[in-house]
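Reviewers asked in the last cycle whether our approach scales beyond single polypeptides. To address this, we selected a multi-component target totalling 373 residues and predicted its structure end to end. The input consisted of the following lines:
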Amino acid sequence: MSGQPAPAAKPPEKKLPPTHDAHQPSRRVLEENAVDHELIRSRLGDRVLGIETAFKQTVLKAAPEHVVDVLRCLRDDPALKFEMLTDITAVDNMRREDFEPARRFTVVYVVYSVAHKKRVRVEVSVPEQDPRVPSAAPVFKGAPWIEREVFDMFGIIFDGHPDLRRVLLPDYYEHFPLRKDYPLTGRGERDNFVRAEELE
Amino acid sequence: MGLEQMIPSLLGDGFITTQVNKLIAWGRRNSIWPYPFGTACCAIEMMATLNSRYDLSRFGAEVIRFSPRQSDLLIVSGRVTLKMMPVLTEIYQQMGEPKWVISMGACASTGGVFNTYPQVQGVDQFIPVDVYIPGCPPRPESLIDAVLKIQQIIDGQAERHEFTRPAAAEAKA
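The resulting structure, written as structure tokens, was:
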């Protein structure tokens, strides 16, 4: 057996599955994100306060009094056809550095166009005192349920809502727990029951 | 005195003697009818305990009843929220004496990881619990062990001539 070991055979080149080959953003995501700002501006006019695409998501800003009009136009315009209401939610801006009481909450509507495979969000700023937004119930039949949840968690009142009650929390609940000034562990509601033996 | 020795000569084999308490306890412990208060993943393990692989009927506790009036063991398995706690209390009250309670899993016993506003931090704050099962979720063997512990409790209550829950008696007094 003479001296040197044979050089190790070169390991076969690993073949990655095609999805790992290179970073290729899928076509569907691109389609969804490529929303034509000019088209939306031409259809909505000055009812939309601003359009921006950030983090691959398009956001329209609207004033509370115009939001139902904006949603109706987004739904009905044949070039837009955002006819599916994905979600309505809200954001509490209380802990942000640039917080102003006049823009305490942001109500966010997410609408999707099944025909064009595009998605936009519509954002509305709501003040801390008397947080009110018109209800989207006349435009989307599914909106009242989602708006009830937003009311339940943030206390935002939807004007014209057919049945604005709490939906997840019990009816006697006094607070709006997703507001940032509500402590995570609550204000003692979870401890306020009578022991079963005391009821007997 | 001497009765036990006389029985075989008088009546033949096949007789045993015991106390009424112990006879009642023997009947109770081997025919526990659980009420499943399943609100989360612990309930899945409870179902597994009842199926043929783990077979809770070996211990006489397989007759799940969905009416609290027909059951004597309340198995609280899963999270209990502040909206659900009055329901649980009412179900507990509707069960006839004697009754026992198993708090199954971390959430029912302590609130588990859910240290949040809607989550009751342990059902034992509001209903009396006999046996706690640790785990998230506990394995079926743990639930079987808890049922066996309940059987021991039933035997112990018979030995001490307790026919109602001590806590309930105190509350009434």
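Strands of chain B lie at 34-38, 73-77, 100-104, 131-133. We regard this as preliminary and will revisit it once experimental data from Aim 1 are available.
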